[in-house]
């Protein structure tokens, strides 16, 4: 008995405890948001449908996007995910694997903490600061994104270089390829990593992965995406995020005009706010005299950061969406280095009042900024707005056939996306309703990109049509089925 208690005691002291608690909380949080009908067709429905179709050996054509899933971001990693999905066929599996990827990043940090001779309290403080950085929680509950799977690999690779443990070049290369396979924009991250490696003295490796990142971006952007996605999936469709028209003719005058526009977007107030939000949860790093040394760790992130700065899209300039996720691995390393007695930029470079209480102040500040800037508070109110219709929604969903082509509201799509054909009620589009077998509507809460007028019009048409029959209606949830289906 005493031996068992000792084993439990040792387990609770180690990084496994942080991993286990983090995995449970993150998995539960993302699953609960989905269960409460706050996940979305964009992006969970898109990836869930595609991964499901891959698992069934079918072409992963996204009916939400209107093209093959590889035409979206060239995320080749979706294919091995599809293989796993065959054996764990549930939308919740995507939440579990995403939460696992974020939580397992504790183990590379554990390696670094040993190398830096961090005390137990300093190590715990660094783990808490990392796990409670608001982006980690916010991205975790914001549906599913395949680039999150690269998160622990990025951190592990970065730390391996930091502590001079690149023991196998082929393993290093496989990690780089995996990172690239998660999303085309990860080539910007790998490019930045190559620049950082050159600064660190690994010139050959750095130059090699810079070349690989450029080759990958060109191959995916100009060959893979057009091949699978066609004209609708052109990489130029993303330029609207930067305030540009994808149909522009790129002559010299246009390029000068665009360059000027992008420069002005960099100097915007929204970027100052964005930088402030990124830095505030780790404000204590600025107390160190060697703060510029810490932020040299961010070199690999700078190409992605620049991409965010030149954008005029709000989603690319906040700590809610996935676009700033890769800021976290590099800042997590800086946190540990700031607490290390081994390095010159450790405790001694902080003011004396901070040195004495550093670990406890970091824990306090991390908890405070998490409560303020994470979407944890949404579970106490905003995520409750489907409670009155939740039972009706589940009953209606249970009546929809697996083989049906379905039109439904945005927040119901991820609950019905494991099928070949699904669309959501988008007021900007006029659907041929006869192309669907079943239509599930929420007339009280029409959802994203929809409105009451649009949904009421569909409802009135279906109710008056001789070709459709209402099979369920309760609490503003109505299910219609084609009579000859």
Radius of gyration: 24 Å
Biggest pleated sheet: 5 strands, mixed
| Coarse morphology | globular
The end-to-end span amounts to 64 Å
Any low-confidence stretches, pLDDT <50, length ≥5? none
DSSP strand tally? 7
Question: Helical element count?
Answer: 21
Q: Strand order within the widest sheet?
A: 4-3-5-7-6
Q: Please state the structural category.
A: mainly alpha
Q: Quaternary state, please?
A: single chain
Total number of domains: 2
Average pLDDT rating: 91
What level of helicity do the residues show? 55-70%
- What fraction of the residues are assigned to beta strands by DSSP? 5-15%
SSE topology string: HHHEEHHHHHHHHHHHHHHHHHEEEHEE
Explain this structure.
This protein is mainly alpha-helical. It folds into 2 domains: 366 residues, no CATH class; 96 residues. The protein has 21 helices and 7 strands. The strands form 2 sheets. It has a 5-stranded mixed beta sheet with strand order 4-3-5-7-6, sandwiched between helices. Strands 1-2 form a two-stranded antiparallel sheet. Strand 1 and strand 2 form a beta hairpin. The chain is globular and about 80 Å long. The mean pLDDT is 91.
């Amino acid at each position: 008995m005493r031996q068992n208690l000792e084993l439990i005691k040792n387990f609770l002291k180690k990084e496994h405890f942080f991993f286990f608690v983090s995995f449970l909380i993150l998995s539960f949080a993302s699953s609960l948001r989905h269960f409460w009908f706050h996940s979305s067709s964009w992006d969970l429905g898109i990836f869930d449908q595609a991964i499901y179709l891959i698992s069934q050996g079918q072409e992963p054509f996204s009916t939400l996007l209107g093209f093959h899933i590889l035409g979206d971001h060239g995320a080749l990693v979706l294919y091995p995910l599809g293989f796993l999905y065959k054996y764990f066929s549930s939308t919740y599996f995507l939440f579990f694997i995403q939460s696992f990827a974020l939580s397992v990043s504790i183990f590379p940090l554990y390696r670094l903490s040993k190398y830096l001779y961090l005390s137990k309290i300093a190590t715990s403080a660094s783990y808490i600061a990392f796990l409670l950085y608001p982006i980690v929680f916010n991205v975790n509950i914001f549906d599913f994104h395949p680039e999150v799977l690269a998160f622990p690999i990025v951190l592990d690779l970065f730390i391996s270089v930091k502590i001079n443990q690149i023991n196998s070049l082929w393993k290093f290369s496989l990690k780089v390829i995996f990172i690239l396979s998660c999303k085309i924009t990860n080539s910007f991250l790998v490019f930045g990593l190559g620049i950082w490696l050159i600064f660190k003295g690994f010139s050959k490796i750095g130059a090699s992965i810079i070349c690989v990142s450029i080759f990958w971006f060109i191959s995916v952007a100009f060959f893979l995406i057009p091949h699978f996605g066609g004209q609708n999936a052109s990489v130029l469709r993303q330029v609207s995020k930067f305030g540009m028209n994808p149909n522009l003719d790129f002559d010299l005058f246009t390029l000068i005009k665009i360059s000027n526009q992008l420069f002005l977007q960099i100097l915007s107030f929204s970027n100052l706010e964005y930088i402030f939000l990124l830095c505030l949860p780790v404000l204590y790093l600025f107390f160190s005299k060697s703060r510029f040394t810490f932020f040299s760790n961010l070199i690999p992130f700078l190409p992605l950061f620049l991409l965010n700065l030149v954008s005029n899209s709000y989603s690319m300039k906040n700590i809610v969406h996935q676009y700033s996720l890769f800021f976290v691995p590099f800042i997590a390393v800086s946190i540990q280095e700031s607490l290390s007695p081994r390095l010159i930029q450790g405790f001694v470079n902080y003011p004396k009042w901070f040195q004495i209480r550093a670990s406890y102040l970091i824990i306090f500040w991390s908890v405070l900024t998490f409560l303020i800037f994470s979407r944890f508070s949404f579970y106490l109110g905003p995520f409750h707005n489907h409670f009155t219709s939740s039972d009706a929604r589940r009953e209606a969903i249970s009546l929809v056939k697996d083989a049906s082509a379905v039109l439904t509201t945005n927040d119901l799509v991820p609950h019905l996306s494991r099928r070949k054909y699904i669309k959501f009620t988008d007021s900007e589009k006029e659907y041929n309703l006869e192309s669907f077998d079943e239509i599930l509507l929420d007339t009280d809460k029409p959802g994203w990109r929809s409105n009451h007028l649009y949904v009421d019009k569909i409802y009135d048409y279906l109710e008056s049509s001789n070709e459709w029959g209402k099979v369920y209606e309760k609490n503003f949830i109505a299910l219609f089925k084609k009579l000859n289906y």
